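Lab intake sheet, docking and co-folding queue.

SAMPLE TYPE: protein with bound small molecule
LIGAND NAME: pyridoxal-5'-phosphate
LIGAND FORMAT: SMILES
REQUESTED OUTPUT: full 3D complex as structure tokens
PRIORITY: normal
SUBMITTED BY: R.K., bench team

The fields below were copied directly from the construct record.
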Amino acid sequence: MQDIHQRIRDIQHFGEEGGVVPVIDVASTSTFLNPEDMERAFHGEMEGCYLYSRHSNPSVNMFSKKMAALEGMEFGLGTASGMSAISSALEQIMGDGGEIISSLTVYGGTYALFKNVFPQQGIQVKFVNIEDLQEVERAITPRTKVIYTETLSNPLLRVSPLQKLGDLCRKRNIKLVVDNTFTPMLINPSVFGADVVVHSCTKFISGASDLIAGVVLSSKKFIHELIDLNHGRIMLKGPVMDPRIAHELYLRLDHLPIRMKAHSAAAQYFAENVEKAGIKIIYPGLKSHNQHDLMKSMMNPGYGFGGMMAIDMKESKKAMRLAQRLQDEKFGLYAVSLGFSRTLMSCPSVSTSSEITAEDQAKMNLSPGLLRLSIGFVGDHQIMLERFVKCYRECEKHNP
Ligand SMILES: *Cc1c(COP(=O)(O)O)cnc(C)c1O
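RESULT FIELD (auto-filled):
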């Protein structure tokens, strides 16, 4: 398969006067020289013709095409946020109702959408252990339309068996929808049979923690359904991407491969040495992670295991004390989100996963003392490691 980096490289757009960067097309509406063409456009007969920016926009289109190339998908559509990418894609597939089988270990916002909002729209969601194929298969009914999972789960860093899920979906005529937010470049869910891939572009794809955005990647047919003038969930509910944001992200995709490698290199060095210091750490790049080989078998070579890891301090108070010390020592910033150039830390049980009921948190083995780390690449790796080990030892002493 062609290297993913080259796929991005081969997407080229020019500015109006031959500039090496495309211009931002901010127009909300486009002129029709022939009024009859506008009528035809409204009947969907003018492919490639721009009408109104909620329907399609040249700058958003350029970004979406580059993302589609990155994910090995046919087509894409930038959205206002990761959540709108998830909700719009699923609502479009589910239509007037039915069932979704979802991994229990998903992002807290996704969990709340599935648990509290979708049932009010006639969409039922069954949460399962996505690693247990028999449990997944048993959950399928004639009403099941989608299996939903995250490639690498937030925050527990469990790896989804995408090939097996893809095969199951083919066999049972169900759509596989995968959130690939933690692993852009590293893993392409399309290779394993994902029908729809979504991203929160707010994270690694932005890389600067400066904007909210998302993207849906799928077949041309499905993307056209999303912007259909009469039934499209993006067109009619309107969570579109602003062309200025699309332009920013378009440019940043050129250095996403370098950034992902840098995150992986920093994280791998950190995790290996923290483990050597006798501190237990959860990172799929370590042989001690029981899905290390599974993840390796799914990865594009050369990008590493990514920047996400977690450490279990058992109690949330202890995790927060460690985070506080680490912040004081300028190891990282105590903030939700991830994929920033600098290290971000948070306690999921009391923040990004607090939407998940205590019962479900226990069922998915989400420890109240889990501290999630999104490892940045700015700074000296060795100094960062020393700061971490020092703070960790202090916290251990403080509370033996
Ligand atoms: C952050 C996140 C989302 C939500 O994305 P937004 O851009 O904040 O709407 C969805 N899935 C995962 C895995 C995330 O980390």
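REVIEWER NOTE: Residues 256-276 form the longest helix (21 residues).
SIGN-OFF: pending second check by T.M.
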